């Protein structure tokens, strides 16, 4: 006996929904409470779970708008081969895929990819539904809030996709199933019963729905004083949907609801160039947003400023940059000077290198300095480990390596976790001054800015020097004003006299 699934009631003011997408295909085996499709109302999007175990028979295809209570699909018992009695030839077709479950079916789940990661997004499938896959062959690409990585097949077999591209799946969640020992040719006969399964219900719907408005559409038409008989329905079976009712007033300009209040017709033409679009936030962007807001709410953040005369560093680079690259194979940039200066200053002021853990303050005797990098997916912060033990060439090489991996979206979780202090350089984008936000759970972050020639007084004389403003944002719960200012002064001292970093004074 087949179980009929109907559109559930999703709210008092919602009278119809649209089938956004099917996560299962016609003829697929489904389990109770497994999501089979995604429904979309004018207010929200929600998932529809299966009401029983069995074989799915889709009644309404994707894009169909249905009223509450309308039939959306049927679920047949897995052993009920005799259900489609209309055509014996069609009955024989489903018996072939029923054999495939006799083969071993294994679930492909999202692996654990890091302590702080609880969910991932399916970025893209490199294999299609029903494809033959081999063990260790990449079947899809997963994207977390920190990195992108590939998911290999655990066995040889036929792939059945459970989670579609763009769907968010928790760690341990099922993304696909593999029929071990099956072949893709077995699943092809499923195409034959799909058409008969869909055609019958659609025909019956069209017999009563043609020319009839949905409840929401009827209300819109009544408010406009438009007869439903004059409106062409585009819904299932010719039903008049809410969009049809909205478009009925001005068919030519219906896609532009913004133009309705405009009184002067001449203004309509320029509106065609005014386009707005919506894009879903990536997992990385959502995580960045949550963490930055949390830092502002959970820390006593304060920022102190200073300025650095960059002439000594610029003179040193101009003198030795060619020889430095010839010897070490990497360029001599500003980041190595700032990283080394911060690593030394963190040893002098360990509280700036500490963080709060519950009721305790954790002090680190090493300096793992994170460098903020703008990548195609958003801001990432790879970490330079034990920077206090590295020389300029080693720091520069590590900066180049991590920045390259960031731009190619190849950073690993380990390369982006565990930093004790962060440096961000807004100056490369032209920023003159800013108050950077702490990278939790760290207690401080240094902001670099652009270099501008300014008139300054040195030894009683006005001279023009290349000046950079630097900012230190810190958590006032652990770091007092004295320590923060002293730390920034120490960094300034090392940068304005880089020989100190070489001599360790």
Automatic annotation (TrEMBL):
<dbReference type="InterPro" id="IPR006255">
    <property type="entry name" value="SucB"/>
</dbReference>
<dbReference type="InterPro" id="IPR023213">
    <property type="entry name" value="CAT-like_dom_sf"/>
</dbReference>
<dbReference type="InterPro" id="IPR050537">
    <property type="entry name" value="2-oxoacid_dehydrogenase"/>
</dbReference>
<dbReference type="InterPro" id="IPR003016">
    <property type="entry name" value="2-oxoA_DH_lipoyl-BS"/>
</dbReference>
<keyword id="KW-0012">Acyltransferase</keyword>
<protein>
    <recommendedName>
        <fullName>Dihydrolipoyllysine-residue succinyltransferase component of 2-oxoglutarate dehydrogenase complex</fullName>
        <ecNumber>2.3.1.61</ecNumber>
    </recommendedName>
</protein>
<comment type="pathway">
    <text>Amino-acid degradation; L-lysine degradation via saccharopine pathway; glutaryl-CoA from L-lysine: step 6/6.</text>
</comment>
<dbReference type="InterPro" id="IPR000089">
    <property type="entry name" value="Biotin_lipoyl"/>
</dbReference>
<feature type="domain" description="Lipoyl-binding">
    <location>
        <begin position="105"/>
        <end position="179"/>
    </location>
</feature>
<feature type="domain" description="Lipoyl-binding">
    <location>
        <begin position="2"/>
        <end position="76"/>
    </location>
</feature>
<dbReference type="Pfam" id="PF00364">
    <property type="entry name" value="Biotin_lipoyl"/>
</dbReference>
<keyword id="KW-0816">Tricarboxylic acid cycle</keyword>
<feature type="compositionally biased region" description="Polar residues">
    <location>
        <begin position="198"/>
        <end position="207"/>
    </location>
</feature>
<dbReference type="InterPro" id="IPR001078">
    <property type="entry name" value="2-oxoacid_DH_actylTfrase"/>
</dbReference>
<feature type="compositionally biased region" description="Low complexity">
    <location>
        <begin position="188"/>
        <end position="197"/>
    </location>
</feature>
<feature type="region of interest" description="Disordered">
    <location>
        <begin position="188"/>
        <end position="209"/>
    </location>
</feature>
<feature type="domain" description="Peripheral subunit-binding (PSBD)">
    <location>
        <begin position="212"/>
        <end position="249"/>
    </location>
</feature>
<dbReference type="InterPro" id="IPR004167">
    <property type="entry name" value="PSBD"/>
</dbReference>
<dbReference type="Pfam" id="PF00198">
    <property type="entry name" value="2-oxoacid_dh"/>
</dbReference>
<dbReference type="Pfam" id="PF02817">
    <property type="entry name" value="E3_binding"/>
</dbReference>
<keyword id="KW-0450">Lipoyl</keyword>
<comment type="similarity">
    <text>Belongs to the 2-oxoacid dehydrogenase family.</text>
</comment>
<keyword id="KW-0808">Transferase</keyword>
<dbReference type="InterPro" id="IPR011053">
    <property type="entry name" value="Single_hybrid_motif"/>
</dbReference>
<dbReference type="InterPro" id="IPR036625">
    <property type="entry name" value="E3-bd_dom_sf"/>
</dbReference>
<comment type="function">
    <text>E2 component of the 2-oxoglutarate dehydrogenase (OGDH) complex which catalyzes the second step in the conversion of 2-oxoglutarate to succinyl-CoA and CO(2).</text>
</comment>
């Amino acid at each position: 006996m087949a179980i009929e699934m109907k559109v559930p009631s999703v709210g008092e003011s919602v009278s119809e929904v649209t089938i956004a997408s099917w996560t299962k295909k016609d003829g697929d085996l489904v389990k109770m409470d497994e999501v089979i499709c995604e429904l979309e109302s004018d207010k929200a999007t929600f998932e529809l779970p299966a009401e029983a175990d069995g074989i799915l028979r889709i009644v309404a295809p994707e894009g169909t708008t249905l009223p509450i209570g309308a039939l959306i699909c049927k679920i047949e018992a897995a052993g009920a081969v005799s259900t489609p009695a209309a055509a014996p030839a069609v009955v024989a077709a489903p018996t072939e895929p029923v054999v495939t479950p006799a083969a071993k079916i294994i679930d492909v789940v999202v692996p654990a990819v890091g302590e702080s990661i609880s969910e991932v997004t399916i970025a893209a499938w490199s294999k299609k539904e029903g494809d033959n896959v081999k063990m260790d062959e990449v079947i899809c690409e997963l994207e977390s809030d920190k990195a992108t990585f590939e998911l290999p097949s655990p066995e040889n077999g036929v792939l059945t996709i459970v989670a579609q591209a763009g769907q968010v799946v928790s760690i341990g969640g099922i993304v696909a199933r593999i029929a071990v020992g099956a072949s893709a040719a077995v699943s092809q006969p499923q195409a034959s019963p799909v058409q008969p399964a869909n055609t019958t219900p659609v025909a019956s719907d069209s017999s009563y729905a043609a020319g009839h408005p949905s409840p929401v559409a009827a209300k819109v038409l009544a408010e406009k004083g438009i007869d439903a008989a004059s409106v062409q329905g585009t819904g299932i079976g010719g039903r008049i949907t809410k969009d049809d009712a909205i478009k009925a007033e001005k068919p030519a300009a219906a896609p532009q609801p913004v133009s309705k209040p405009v009184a002067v017709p001449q203004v309509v033409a320029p509106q065609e160039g005014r386009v707005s679009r919506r894009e879903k936030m990536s997992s990385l962007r959502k995580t960045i947003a949550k963490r930055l807001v949390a830092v502002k709410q959970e820390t006593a953040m304060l920022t102190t400023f200073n300025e650095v005369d960059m002439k000594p560093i610029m003179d040193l680079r101009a003198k030795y940059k060619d020889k430095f690259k010839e010897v070490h194979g990497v360029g001599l940039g500003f980041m190595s000077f700032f990283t080394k200066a911060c690593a030394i200053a963190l040893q002098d002021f360990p509280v700036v290198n500490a963080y709060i853990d519950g009721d305790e303050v954790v002090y680190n005797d090493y300096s793992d300095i994170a460098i903020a990098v703008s990548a195609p997916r958003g801001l990432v912060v790879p970490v330079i480990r034990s920077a206090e033990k590295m020389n300029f060439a080693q720091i520069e090489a590590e900066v180049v390596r991590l920045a390259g991996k960031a731009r190619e979206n190849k950073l690993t979780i380990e390369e982006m976790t565990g930093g004790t202090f962060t440096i961000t350089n807004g100056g490369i984008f032209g920023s003159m001054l800013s108050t950077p936000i702490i990278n939790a759970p760290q207690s401080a972050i240094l902001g670099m800015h652009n270099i501008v020639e300014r008139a300054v007084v040195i030894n009683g004389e006005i001279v023009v020097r290349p000046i950079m403003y630097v900012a230190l944002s810190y958590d006032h719960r652990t770091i007092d004003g004295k320590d923060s200012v002293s730390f920034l002064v120490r960094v300034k001292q090392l940068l304005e006299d880089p020989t100190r970093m070489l001599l360790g004074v």
